[in-house]
Amino acid sequence: LYIKTLEVKMRVKIAYTVGEDQVEQEVAEIITRASTDLDMAYQEIVNIQNQLDTGTGDLNKNIEGIHFARTKLAKADQILEDCNLILQGLEQTRKNIEEQENEVQSG
Q: pTM of the prediction?
């Protein structure tokens, strides 16, 4: 039985400011990185599957390939979680602005 732990390098949150109207474009750019990681994982898994189906390739390389794909999936998942949190914050900000505007109009 071969067991290898999934090693994910420590990730650090960074913050910077953009205009409210630029948030969605920034998130789209960030999602591109997740999409690239997902594509790389998918391609690796397809290659491994083909090698296993045909009995070609090296078993250890297939094990390493699965580890590589899992690492890419974990990275993509973290990026998507970050994007989700950013968009939730944007939604809340827009709701707050709308509520403030409604208070001013009715007040």
A: 0.82
